[in-house]
Amino acid sequence: MDASIESRVDREVEAWLRWVPRWRPGTHRARSRLCQQCLGSPVLKAAGLVTDVPHAVQHPLSMRIKTIVEDEVENYTAQNLPMLDRELGLIEERRAAQAYRPLEGLGPEFDGIDLDAPPPEPDSPYLFTFEELAQPLSADDPELVPPPLTIEEKAALRVEMRLADDFATLVGKRVCAALAGHRAELRRAVDTFVEPQVQALLADLGSTLDPHGT
Ligand SMILES: [Zn+2]
Q1: Is the per-residue pLDDT at 26 higher than 90?
Q2: Residue 40 CA, ligand 1 centroid: distance in Å
């Protein structure tokens, strides 16, 4: 972790500031669930964007900052936490293996075709069936399941997980401190480009609800 965190925050803030003037209120339905990334986010709090800012405006900034923290933690883990790095790599491998589904996306011309029908001639070479290829590579796949961790390894892994958490907290604090330095320009952008559109929407809504203007 070095001064690059602050400069990355600067860059993401700049990108967000370039985007805000193009923001328009969405016509899509409101989200049915609250966003886990933005709700109670210390990042948005540090940025001063918690109140009176539409979620669609908050969210891109949350995500940009989240990426910085994730990248930093990933680098730190790769360099300093070998056990955790290995475990995360294995999880990633398993996920990638499961994502490979040869039967999906085959196209409509294959619909209804018995893909693993035996070959018509019993003596013709037949190496594998689609069905075999499509077997889910689950956690049971022996090649992907490493031997269970020993008690010592588990303890070491727990220590590394705590170190990764501590590091994430540290990065989070630095990111928030850097964001707080941008608070004034972030607010100015919201006041200039977002708030007038929100007010216009509210005015529209008011005249719809009260057509006689009484
Ligand atoms: Zn969000």
Answers
A1: no
A2: 10
- Model confidence pLDDT, tens digit, residues 153-185: 999 999 999 999 999 999 999 999 999 999 999
In a domain, 190, yes or no: yes
pTM given for the model? 0.71
Residue 191 inside a domain? The answer is: yes
Q: Is residue 113 part of a domain?
A: no
Give which of 130, 141, 132, 139 is closest to 105, Cα–Cα: 130
Q: Measured in angstroms, how far is the CA atom of residue 131 from the centroid of ligand 1?
A: 40
| Residues having C-beta closer than 5 Å to ion ligand 1 | 35, 37-38, 59
d(CA 28, ligand 1 centre) in Å: 15
Q: Which residues of 47-56 are buried (b: 16+ CB within 10 A; e: fewer)?
A: bbbeeebbbe
